[in-house]
Specification:
The protein is an alpha/beta fold. The protein has one domain: 3-Layer(aba) Sandwich (Rossmann fold). Helix content is 49%, strand content 15%. The protein has nine helices and seven strands. The chain has a seven-stranded parallel sheet, with helices on both faces. Strand 2, helix 2 and strand 3 form a beta-alpha-beta unit. The longest helix is centred in the middle third of the chain and has 29 residues. The protein is globular, with a radius of gyration of 17 Å. The structure holds nicotinamide-adenine-dinucleotide. The site of nicotinamide-adenine-dinucleotide has 29 residues, from helix 1 and helix 7.
């Protein structure tokens, strides 16, 4: 097991990619805290991990609320005595032409996809700096590398996460904290299905432009996160890796 006795937090792990990341980290031996606003889904993820013999705990956390995130991170560290892996995965969008979107919508997209990553990083770094060890993995998106029609503000937020990754990686390298970013391409999750509900041809048209010829699935992304969280990636920091079947090659 690559992560025996490690403590991990995964945000947005009630569903989709975050759930797969949480379950895969747990299979590698990590104790996993699940931060999500979806209490039911978070509980299901925790139960699935425990049924498989792992250790998990679900937290009702809105990642856009700094005080709530700070308190939940402190609870995890108090309970399990350390924090080795922090995965900032929670995200949200609703595709629409930019000129049809409102300021309230921009604020929501930026809060969940960018500011939450900043809040979470600030919350976890204190412990990781004391330990002189830590792994932070951000889940951004290929939209942040190459753009995505109908996702202008989301792309800006995810591009911000990629840039944030690089600067934080530079700042905390001396504390032996690795900071990397994984960019999924279009992946079949509840979030993606909400896009398909509005545009039923989306899945088929994306399959045609993905060299691998299919959409991603959450289990495509999770192993990349495990790798970046493990000792195998000890000398890798500040990097952005796409998991998208070759859709983007940058
Ligand atoms: N599915 C895709 O095609 C795709 C592509 C590129 C990037 N991503 C990114 O992958 C990540 C996971 O997306 P997914 O497709 O699994 O979506 P999903 O909707 O299945 O899961 C996202 C999770 O985030 C949680 N969440 C949303 N807002 C939150 C908040 N304020 N506080 C706490 N939790 C919150 C949701 O409750 C949900 O459990 C996101 O960052 C998304 O932007 C997804």
């Amino acid at each position: 097991m690559k992560l025996a006795d490690r403590v991990a937090i995964v945000t947005g792990a009630a569903s989709g990619i975050g759930r797969a990341i949480a379950e895969t980290l747990a299979r590698e031996g990590a104790r996993v805290a699940i931060f999500d606003v979806n209490e039911t889904g978070a509980g299901e993820t925790a139960r699935a991990i425990e049924t498989a013999g792992g250790t998990a705990r679900a937290y009702d956390v809105d990642v856009t609320k700094k005080a709530v995130v700070d308190a939940a991170v402190a609870d995890v560290v108090g309970r399990w005595g350390a924090l080795h892996v922090a995965v900032s995965n929670a995200g949200w969008d609703r595709p629409a032409p930019f000129v049809e979107t409102s300021e309230d919508f921009w604020d929501k997209v930026l809060a969940i996809n960018l500011k939450a990553a900043i809040i979470f990083t600030r919350a976890v770094l204190e412990t990781m700096m004391k330990q002189q060890h830590g792994r932070i993995v951000f889940i951004a998106s290929d939209a942040g590398r190459v753009g995505s029609t109908g996702e202008a503000v989301y792309s800006a937020a995810k591009g911000g996460v990629i840039a944030f990754t690089k600067t934080i990686a530079r700042e905390v390298a001396r504390h032996r904290i690795n900071v990397n970013c994984v960019c999924p391409g279009p992946s079949d999750t509840p979030l993606f299905q909400s896009f398909v509900a509005e545009n039923p041809k989306l899945g088929e048209s994306l399959k045609r432009v993905i060299p691998w010829g299919r959409l991603g699935v959450p289990d495509d992304v999770a192993p990349a996160v495990v790798f970046l969280s493990s000792d195998d990636a000890a000398f890798i920091t500040g990097q952005t890796i796409s998991v998208s079947g070759g859709l983007t090659m940058v």
